[in-house]
Specification:
Elements lengths: L10 H10 L5 H12 L7 H14 L3 E5 L5 H7 L7 E6 L2 H13 L6 E5 L2 H7 L6 E6 L6 H11 E10 L18 H16 L3 E6 L5 E6 L3 H5 L2
Parallel strand pairs: 1-2, 1-4, 2-3, 4-5
Antiparallel strand pairs: 5-7, 6-7
Helix pairs in contact: 3-4, 7-8
The structure holds S-adenosylmethionine.
S-adenosylmethionine binds next to helix 4, strand 2 and helix 6.
Amino acid sequence: MEYDLNAIVTPYVTSYIREKTKQSDEFLAGLEKYAAENNVPIVEPETARLLSVLTKLKQPERILEVGCAIGYSSILMSKGLKEGGKITTLEYDHDMVMTARKNIDAAGLSDTINVVEADAKDYLSYIDEDEIFDIIFLDGPKAHYVYMLDDAVRLLKKGGLLISDNILFKGMTADDDHFVRRKVTIINRLRDYIDALMTHPQLESSILSQGDGVTVSLKTVSDFERFGY
Ligand SMILES: C[S@@+](CC[C@H](N)C(=O)[O-])C[C@H]1O[C@@H](n2cnc3c(N)ncnc32)[C@H](O)[C@@H]1O
């Protein structure tokens, strides 16, 4: 079987939600248009709105994003930052980095959003300040979320949110009937990631079946409370 793009949410429900979820910010609407025309994968409109609501609710001082692409979601999240707040966003594709920096500059956010050109798989373990981020958004290499989890939890403040996109992967994560053989590694790792999130002693997680599947995890137990140091 090939991908069933409508495996998670039926098309008429998606159309309805999207009709109601219009992007009112002109600059972001322009980036959505650019992404659609240039096949750049950015968060789906309903996931963008969820990110926006969660960020404004949390009013974070520091956000870490894995997977910047052209800077769309980091610009979106910057609108919910506390005054003086900062975003670090990781991207390993050089052309994407250059485009993201250009967009962030055009949005007047160069002092707020730092695009780091790095492979997130390595970079997270080099950040040595623990519990510094209020929100971590994983939207990069899906097959590596499970290996990033320890660092993500370590870097997140107690009360912080870990948000992970594409965890249902066109429904394949949930059901072998929607499984494409060549995606076996990524799907098995996403399944392991979801199991790890749902049983993690420091997190309370919710799996949302919107867009391509999103998890929202609240860090309820600090590293000190768990490990005693
Ligand atoms: C889905 S896109 C991100 C979209 C962006 N968050 C948005 O919604 O505007 C995923 C991005 O992650 C990047 N990526 C994939 N693996 C990566 C890695 N190991 N380290 C850093 N970036 C990575 C890809 O190059 C791609 O630009």
